[in-house]
From TrEMBL:
The record marks K198 as: Lowers pKa of active site Cys. The gene is lipB. This is Octanoyltransferase. It is found in: Cytoplasm. Keywords: Acyltransferase, Cytoplasm, Transferase. GO terms for cellular component: cytoplasm. It comes from Streptomyces viridochromogenes (strain DSM 40736 / JCM 4977 / BCRC 1201 / Tue 494). The keyword Cell division does not apply. Substrate binds at R73, G74, G75, K76, I77, T78, W79, H80, G214, F215, S216.
């Protein structure tokens, strides 16, 4: 088991401004690269803030001009704020780094956390993060006035994800913007629509073989913050929180030690391997 240190930076009234946490990430990253610090996970809450990864499109940002911090992680735009547990694992990995394996480990720790609270979550193929799958499409309400039908991508565990409804303009109209068309399309209402919804977002960066950034886990935030943006650039699914899915109040204080334990089990016990590079045989 590799050494793994947890640093609780600040929560609630002591929530950590995004820039302060980003500066601390870079400081710890440099120390970890120089072997002056062990693998470290920074855990915290942020005051409300939107951050945009490198692949964020202009039309996914807030329509009202709300400021967004552009960051050097992968992924697209998301929100951080009260009621959301943020974790920044700063871990040295063998080169060439297997980025996908690192993302899968973070997902696994959060999937185990949700299971401990009684919530089944999974992965969705082609989409990072941790997901609550929607109901089978034939069992969903049809808020758009159309009949249910099967749709797109395969999800984890053999179940279908990304299913849709007839007459859903999100699927066929490239200019349709759910933010301008009422609460029935709002990402925060995906649970009411019983659609697929993301409960934990993941976006990372690897520099010099050491990871940065990480995950944000929606414990009990005001989910309407997500309605100003296109969360993670995904228009045909929504967002979820642990409290909503369980139907009861859940606090960061309650979730924090459970997340730490599963991160320690998954990251600390992982057999770290370099990414395999396929080589074309010489002719």
């Amino acid at each position: 088991m590799s050494e793994l240190r947890f640093v609780r930076m600040g929560f609630g009234d002591e929530a950590v401004e995004y820039q302060e946490a980003w500066d601390e990430q870079r400081r710890v990253h440099a120390a970890r690269f120089a072997d002056e610090a062990p693998d470290t996970v920074l855990l915290l809450e942020h005051p409300p803030v939107y951050t945009a990864g490198r692949r964020t499109a202009d039309n996914e940002r807030p329509l009202d001009g709300t400021p967004v911090i552009d960051v050097d992680r992968g992924g697209k735009i998301t929100w951080h704020g009260p009621g959301q547990l943020v974790g920044y694992p700063i871990q040295k990995l063998p080169r060439p780094v297997d980025v996908v394996a690192h993302v899968r480990r973070l997902e696994e720790a959060l999937i185990r956390t949700c299971a401990e609270f009684g919530l089944e979550t999974t992965r969705v193929e082609g989409r990072s993060g941790v997901w609550v799958l929607g109901d089978p499409v034939e069992q969903r309400p049809a808020p758009y006035g159309g009949a249910a039908r099967s749709g797109s991508a395969e999800g984890g565990g053999g179940r279908r994800a990304g299913l849709s409804l007839d007459l859903d303009p999100r699927l066929d109209d490239e200019e349709f913007d759910p933010r301008m068309n009422g609460p029935e399309y709002a990402p925060s209402n995906a649970g009411q629509r019983r659609e697929d919804r993301k409960i934990a977002q993941i976006g990372i960066r690897v520099a010099k073989g050491v990871t940065m950034h990480g995950f944000s886990f929606n414990v009990n935030p005001d989910m309407k913050w997500f309605d100003r943006i296109i969360p993670c650039g995904i228009r045909d699914a929504g967002v979820a929180s642990l409290a909503y899915e369980l139907g009861r109040d859940v606090t960061i204080e309650e979730v924090l030690p459970v997340v730490e334990r599963h991160l320690r089990e998954v990251l600390g016990n992982a057999e770290l391997k370099p990414r395999e590079i396929e080589r074309t045989p010489a002719a």
